[in-house]
Amino acid sequence: MTDGGPIRELLQRLEDAMNSRELDRLDDIVAEDFVRHCQATPDFDVRSREDFKDFLRRNTASFPDNVQTFVQVVEDGDRAGIWTTYEGTQTGPLGPFPASGRKTLFDFGGIVRVEDGKIAELWVTWDNMTILGQLGHLPSG
């Protein structure tokens, strides 16, 4: 991610904390009442910073080597649009799907809202079919 404004800097800190697995750093980055909106993961109701940390821990249990890279960030007032690359090897279960040992690489988009210098809200979306296909969890046709 390139240098830029305050939201871009906050997102760089978020990226670093997630990729280093130093989730305590999120206390200075993510609001306590943070909300994550994602239709692709309806079983994860994230309504606090602690819920978000739990979500990230579960993700790391499925993909211990995961790396998220914010490739594009476009700031607009108290919000920013993000385009992110996710890469990881599924060595743990993913919902009902057993570990596949396969790697996934996909892009996803999102919008963050910042309030009082912290990320207060995240809307994120991706294509589950692409991910499940890469991991071998879909029937071949």
Low-confidence stretches: none
- CATH architecture descriptor text: Roll
What is the CATH level 1 assignment? Answer: Alpha Beta
Mean pLDDT: 95
| Total domains | 1
Name the strands of the widest sheet in spatial order: 1-5-4-3-2
Q: Major β-sheet, in short?
A: 5 strands, mixed
How much helicity do the residues have?
25-40%
Backbone shape: globular
Rg for CA atoms: 15 Å
Order of helices and strands: HEHEEEEH
The CATH topology is what?
Nuclear Transport Factor 2, Chain: A
Q: β content, as a range?
A: 35-45%
Total count of strands: 5
The structural class is alpha+beta
Note the gap between the termini. Answer: 38 Å
Number of helices: 3
What does this structure look like?
By secondary structure, the chain is α+β, with helices and mostly antiparallel strands. It has a single domain (6-134), classed as Nuclear Transport Factor 2, Chain: A. It has three helices and five strands. The protein has helices spanning 6-20, 49-62, 128-134, and strands spanning 30-37, 67-76, 79-89, 103-115, 118-125. The longest helix has 15 residues, at 6-20. It starts with 5 loop residues before the first helix and ends in a 7-residue tail after the last helix.
Task: Outline the fold blueprint.
Layout: H1 6-20, E1 30-37, H2 49-62, E2 67-76, E3 79-89, E4 103-115, E5 118-125, H3 128-134
Parallel strand pairs: 1-5
Antiparallel strand pairs: 2-3, 3-4, 4-5
Protein name: Ester cyclase
Pfam families: SnoaL
Organism: Actinomycetospora straminea
